[in-house]
Amino acid sequence: MGSIQIEFPIRNEENNFLQAMQLPGSAVLCLVLKAVIELDLFEIMAKAGPNAQISASEIVTSLPTSNPEAPLVLDRMLRFLASYSILKCSVVIDEEGNDKRLYSLTPICSNYIRNEDGFAIAPYLLAQFDKVFMQAWYQLKDSVLEGGTPFNREYGMHAFEYPGKDSRFNDVFNKGLQNLTGVTMKIILEVYKGFDGIEEVIDVGGGYGASLAWIVSKYPKIRGINFDLPHVIKDAPAIQGVEHVEGNMFESVPKVKTIFIKLILHDWDDDHCIRLLKNCFEALPNCGKVILVESILPESPQSDCVSNISFYFDIMMMTYNPGGRERTLKQFEALAKSAGFSAIKPIRQAYFYWVIEVYKN
Fold this sequence. Notes:
The protein is of the alpha/beta class. 44% of the residues lie in helices and 17% in strands.
């Protein structure tokens, strides 16, 4: 017998109920996706060839398991992902006359598979849904009622301090950020041409120098300066064309004509951001500029994909970092003006980020 399909008109109240019931599935979706990535299933499916259709039983042969239940468990997980259109699923009849589900990758999956440069957003997803971050969310209600940042309430320290206490999480966290940088910097440098003709650029809060590595790779005449705290710089790898410099951005910034700041302002409250931007203002000549990469929140909530991601980032910053937040363009303008800058201009959008130029004069 074939599957039974029942069609009947759904009233508004029924549709509202169904949508309400669907929401909890979003959390389950992320956790199933996390497990699938940890099992490297998308990579296994990709190795089967373009447009390959593969069963759960076939996938299991590539896993280090002797669990007899693995094919059934995996099939149910993949079927669930297919219901969200993350995978494609087709049903065929096997030799014994039973239904057999075959799965194939969708274009969405390509983002979780390592690209030609070796990067994917999969490690970033693993970091965001790591148990360390997840535990902080259980403090969200009490942070509303009693105050405090959820992450600090859970662990008694800032989210930037914690990785130094947990080597496993530090590795997960840094791999996530490095991969997200590898994916996003490529498109940023494709759409933004503001590095043309620049001789020197400093990346403030540049971590291990991943962003600068992309910049000097495309613009080999640029001298890159990676500026971060001593405990970060000591582990930074050697990068051709990049000098690693220790310092504290809230105390001073080395003098240079062009300053690059990627996803730093959203980690901090307004006072810290203004202090940082004032240090940048003092470091720049009159013709200098700051190149920001940040999300820009719409003034009112929108339901498009970019807005969803930006508001998700905003809640994430609120949960992890004291004072952390995404900002509207007006809020960025207010920060720049408070630091002494004369003008701010969004230049190009790259995925859910904006490249924003901030001019001293």
